[in-house]
Specification:
The chain has one domain. A two-stranded antiparallel sheet has the order 1-2. The protein is built from 5 helices and 2 strands. α1 runs antiparallel to α2, α2 packs antiparallel against α3 and α3 runs antiparallel to α5. It comes from Aeromicrobium phragmitis.
Length: 202
Amino acid sequence: MSEKSPFGASRSDLWAVLIVGGVIVVSTLVGLVVRLVEIVPNRDVPVTVQLMGERLALPLGPNGEPLSGEVSTATIQVSDMPVATYVSALGAAIVPALATIGVVVCVMVLCRNLMAGRFFSRANTRLVSAVSVLIALGWLISFLFSTMASNGALALVADRELLESVQFRVDWVAVLAAMGVGALASAFHAGERMQRDTEGLV
């Protein structure tokens, strides 16, 4: 029979968390390697660009007949990117992967602590705070790198009129997630303080 933690989780539950976290880490690393293989040679690098409702002829009709459509996102291939664009493309690939791995590792350690019955502790508060910071900084730095890579790639192949149609989209999901986890960190901190006060009264 499997051992139970103080709040009912078994050793198999811990292994399930570790396995799922390990799968996410490995898949993230594989995706990062694939992306770096595309970027590092600096030849025909696919770069995603954001456009403001640009109308283009798309081969979507019968027998590939072009149809007019509105495009807000496109992937273009560029070669011989300048240093700034090249570094930005690398950063846009590396930063989200590292942030994801960092978040997963923190969550795995947090789950281990919770399953061991360690709830409101300084370590758990720091782990939750680290998750919030990783989400926020990962999103911000990734957004900056992606924007710079997009602008640099378009500058190589597009005319000025198209460059003026570039728009920036903010992923509010990441922002809200960072805020939510930050609120959770505050709750952990309050619980930790209450636990210390309670222990001091005993």
